[in-house]
Design goal:
Its cofactor is Mg(2+). The model has no long low-confidence stretch (mean pLDDT 96). The protein is an alpha+beta fold. The protein contains seven helices and 15 strands. The strands form three sheets. An eight-stranded mixed beta sheet has the order 4-3-5-6-7-8-9-10, with helices on both faces. Strand 8 and strand 9 form a beta hairpin. The chain folds into two domains: 145 residues, Fructose-1,6-Bisphosphatase, Chain A, domain 1 (2-Layer Sandwich); 106 residues, D-Maltodextrin-Binding Protein, domain 2. Bound molecules: D-MYO-inositol-1-phosphate. The site of D-MYO-inositol-1-phosphate has 13 residues, from strand 5. D-MYO-inositol-1-phosphate binds next to strand 5.
Length: 261
């Protein structure tokens, strides 16, 4: 087994255990712990508890690795591998009982660094529907025993997804982007979970996805799923406060890049 596959197997095992904890806590009732940047940017007690479990399991298995988590921040390591973790991606869905949430775990090369998002291995586990998407660089993307492939859809026939930033000051810009994209595609979804949007592009359930301002824990695992499923993922405007992520099959990615960049 290659190092990438070993990291992927560990990510999947920990994501499943963490997902079970999230699902159980959901059944017991959600406690809002805090709002962060805005009213829509929430954190639940479960986000913190699930991240603590993930951090413990990963760093117990690999004590020299670094860690970069949405809720608990960074821990430096000296192995040259950092785990980039969103304990519950789609927290608003989770809080409202909508099943589109997931545990997202990626292993990236290097020390904790928010600008580093290209992963070696990844798992996105959606506990409410019992799906685990995994990828290891050079070894493909998988949903259980099924190897994933992005679609080869044309832009005009494409079902796309996007997301919006939490800061109301960004909404005009996001809506302007949506207005540019809607006329060239079949339809558009806003599911509220970036990692699942990307996993669904990898699985061919969506033809493309774009969003500005994503954090590394929102995108690192899902982006590897897309590229290992034969798709293209680019992050542009990286000097701006809200870089734009574009993912999809070749034709859809090219058209989105043409109209948004
Ligand atoms: C959010 C979700 C959402 C996306 C936001 C993310 P969170 O992550 O992925 O779909 O639009 O940009 O921050 O806060 O639920 O972990």
């Amino acid at each position: 087994m290659s190092q990438e596959q070993e990291l992927g197997a560990l990510a999947a095992e920990v994501a499943r255990e963490a997902g079970e904890l999230a699902r159980t806590r959901r059944q017991q009732g959600v406690t809002l712990a805090a709002t962060k940047s805005t009213l829509a940017d929430i954190v639940t007690e479960a986000d913190r508890e699930v991240e603590a479990l993930i951090r413990d399991r990963l760093l117990t298995a690999r004590p020299h690795d670094g860690f970069l988590g949405e809720e608990s921040g960074t821990a430096a390591g000296d192995s040259g591998i950092t785990w980039v973790v969103d304990p519950i991606d789609g927290t608003v869905n989770y809080a409202y009982g909508i099943p589109a949430y997931n545990v997202s775990i990626a292993a990236v090369q290097g020390e904790p660094d928010p600008s580093r998002w290209e992963a070696l291995a990844a798992a996105v586990h959606a506990p409410a529907v019992g799906e685990t998407f995994t990828a290891a660089r050079g070894h493909g993307a998988w949903l259980g025993g099924r190897r994933l492939e992005v679609t080869q859809e044309t832009p005009a026939g494409a079902l796309l997804a996007t997301g919006f930033g939490y800061d109301p000051a960004t909404h005009d810009g996001d809506l302007a982007t949506v207005r540019r994209v809607m006329p060239i595609a079949r339809d558009l979804r806003r599911m509220g979970s970036a990692a699942l949007d990307l996993a669904y592009v990898a699985a061919g359930r969506l033809d493309g996805y774009f969003e500005r301002g994503l954090a590394p824990w929102d995108l690192a695992a899902g982006a590897l799923l897309v590229s290992e499923a034969g798709g293209i993922v680019t992050r542009v405007d990286t000097d701006s406060p809200r870089p734009l992520l574009i993912a999809g099959g070749p034709a859809v990615h090219a058209r989105l890049t043409e109209i948004l960049c």
